[in-house]
Amino acid sequence: MGKALQRILYVEDEPDIQRVVKLALEALGGFNVELCSSGAEAIARAPQLAPDLILLDVMMPGMDGPTALHELRQIPALAATPVIFMTAKVQPDEIEHFKGMGALAVIAKPFDPMSLVEMVRNAWAGVEAQSTPAQAGFAERMEALGAQFRAELPGRLAAFEAQWAQLGRLWAQGALTPQAVPDDVAALAELHRIAHNLAGSGSTFGFENLTERARAVDNLLKTLARRQTSFNAAFWTELERACAGLTQALRAALSEAAAAPTADSDGAAAQAPMASPRVVVVGAESAQALQTHLDSFGYQATLLTDAGVLLPSIRHERPAAVIFDRRGLAGAAVFEQAETLRADGIPVLLIDGEDDFATRLCAARAGVAGFYRAPVDMLALLARLDELTDHQPDEPYRILLVDHDRAQADAHAQQLDQAGIVSHCVDTADAVLPCLEEFAPDVIVADMYLPDVNGVELAMVVRQQERYDHIPIVFLSAARDAGQQLSALGMGADDFLIKPVAPEYFVSALSARAQRARVLRSAMTHDGLTGLLNHKNIKALLEKEFARSQRAGAALAIGLIDIDSFKDINDRHGHACGDQVLRALARLLQQRLRASDYVGRCGGEEFLLILPDTDGEHARTLLEELREAFGALQHRSEHGAFCATFSAGVAAAKDSGNASALFNAADKALYAAKEAGRNRVESAAQQR
Fold this sequence. Notes:
Blueprint (H helix, E strand, L loop, with lengths): L6 E5 L3 H14 L3 E5 L2 H11 L3 E5 L7 H9 L9 E5 L4 H9 L4 E4 L4 H13 L12 H35 L13 H16 L6 H18 L7 H27 L18 E5 L5 H9 L3 E5 L5 H4 L7 E5 L8 H10 L4 E5 L4 H9 L4 E4 L4 H12 L8 E5 L3 H13 L3 E5 L5 H7 L4 E5 L1 E2 L2 E2 H9 L9 E5 L4 H9 L4 E4 L4 H23 L9 H18 L3 E8 L2 H8 L1 H18 L5 E6 L2 E7 L3 H17 L2 E3 L2 E3 L3 E7 L6 H17 L5 E3 H4 L1
Parallel strand pairs: 1-2, 1-3, 3-4, 4-5, 6-7, 6-8, 8-9, 9-10, 11-12, 11-13, 13-16, 16-17, 23-24
Antiparallel strand pairs: 14-15, 18-20, 18-23, 19-20, 21-22
């Protein structure tokens, strides 16, 4: 643009995002950044500030970004000042809409603070720029902002719950008409503001799930604000579920924040779950089916029908992977683009109608990570996509340390913490059993000699309980008596470490034990075909959740699913194809359910869903959504493509006296769904 970029005006109502953007642009870019908290403030101050560039949030209370841009353009001194919109609305048509208003570019929220300077400079220069090295202290200052965000989470949760409670009272009183919109209802407007702000700031500080849940509420209320839907019973049900998800995400973020090391800790903070990976599909309109499948299985899929716009479109929002469907891309330079993407570290998958060696060789030379001949085996493609895009670290191992020597226990805990292993220390044997339930360790490390009890006796007590007999127990002792060690191993111990133990060996030995324990536990508790909980463990969880709901007076519902005409699928398409259908449903359930929900395979083609804090009506709505999503999936065999359906029964705990009665009620509702013609959901409440 000729002149150097120096002064930036950032207009944003959310203080957390204000602080992050100002820090990133000043510390990493060397810019002077002025902040305004509303469109009205920007209009009043911008002429005196005379910025070179304006960064403008799209959604703000009172005056949104597009309106603010229109008003700024009426000021002669600002008529030609470049503006970049910052928003969570990043669909291609929305981006073009904003650019049509005169925006120089659109930056998607949430964004990576380390990349923000490059995105702004690229937009300003119109060309790809080199990354700017971080100035000293940036990481520490970002951590301080993160600590501030975490400290404010209790207040945000309280504010959100207060507004939701107020909205609930208005709904119960019949005070919310079908024409209600956020601008007319204070509680609704405040709820929208909180959700919108969390959607933009959560993942910036590592809370990806918080952003995802907040965005669900934000998007629902946007449709209401635009009068694209009415505030009716169906909308209330959808909003209620979305707000329950956000409340849960806020509480999970609070728990994670409480467990995270402080800024001056030696340990590294645990990372939050990653958001759904974004995948770009490049192909003709026929590739829409692939896009739909990817969305169904937890990916955010964007379809581009013009391969020529791929590289420019991903410049400011890097996808997790790109899939080319060459069948609809005649003449497109697919392999050249694949090579460019590979050089940038973006994985590429390729679908082709041809399967000859020459085509595969070209794909291999271009760095294509997966080649699939149409018709595509979706589960194979998804498995490869999972492998390429899942960069989330495994859950840290959990070690319970039992030692009356507190100094020794703290030293061992520090060694484990530095290796990224979560530890918990107790100094008496009677504190162990409560910790097994609450801390859920992968390994128990106990001193051989504790006050009033020895290690062998402790192992015997632990092994008395079947649900804990899989947890490895490792003894620590300075004694080198081989006979004593063999005796301990014979009484339920798994290993014996001689003190003092070298830190490297201590960490290595326990990591190996924990890893093997997890593999063994998974094999014991999960179904080998689908990866879901097996019959024994899902039924045990049903008993546990029913008891919890009775104690707490909380809602609980279950859903029992059975794939329709599954024997016919096996007979016509083969058992291998039937297994693929089972795995596809299992994956769909895992992707669509909340972290607090449980799903298991009861046997054959029957699956059980346990939905805590959910009433029967909401459970039925969820099962209907799952039924429609599963019915839209295409499966393939040598006999052609086909779709499968399922029937389901729903029951609520409030109508049952015990867990067995609850399961039987859902089973009867499932039978009613089958009798009524299959491919439907029936509620136990309707069968009484």
